[in-house]
Input
Amino acid sequence: MIVTVGIDIGSCFSKGVLLRDFEVAASFECLSAGNYTSCAEKIFSSLLEQTSLSPTRVDRTVATGFGAKQVAFADETKSDIACHTKAVFSHSGAARTIIDIGDLHTKAIRVLDRGLVQNFLLSGNCAGGSGRILQVIAKVLQLKLDDLGPLSMRSSKKIDFNTGCAVFAESEAISRVADGVAKEDLLAGLNRALAAQINSLAERIGVEPKLYLVGGGARNPGLVEAFKELRDETVSVLPQPQMSAALGAAMIATESMRPK
Output
């Protein structure tokens, strides 16, 4: 039996997956809280506790993400682009375009028919085109992040959210609420604005059918629906899309242990 761990250290949230012979045996997610080394150790401990394994029973650990280099016990690090691609292609076997809606950036990835990365593009430094803007608005509206998507889907009045910058979006949200705009209408407008920015990035790389969304932003059903409506084509979401990079890292670790 091969036991591997994939750890994805993100700027805001971090995730871990433990595989037994390519099967998910445990997973864990937590806030990164600025201390990536401590966070990685917390994730590793939780995975072992869930599976009643000792640290020596883990054959290989692969780290990825923003703070991957601070996972001191990892055997190697891999790019999150490679890890997302591995997870999605292993799930579908036919993905051609992958969009990772992360906290700091959104990434558009083109994939070849063998699951190899052909090309990718990264959104700019402005958080308006990433999942960070959702956190900003959640704080303004005093809502939990996971509540934004379901609430937005109750919208009954279409409004335009004009600001693409996370900083100015906060001011616009406050002004709109003061003007009496319903939270669900405001969130639906935000999702459409964010979907448009994500689509613009995707168009720059060239979208091919078999399009998948991953990353924390893909947990927002309102954003996913807004993106689907904008593209008017089939858009798939990986189960637990926020775990995609960690899962892919664990898969890469398992493959490296198998006899050539």
Notes: Residues 183-205 form the longest helix (23 residues).
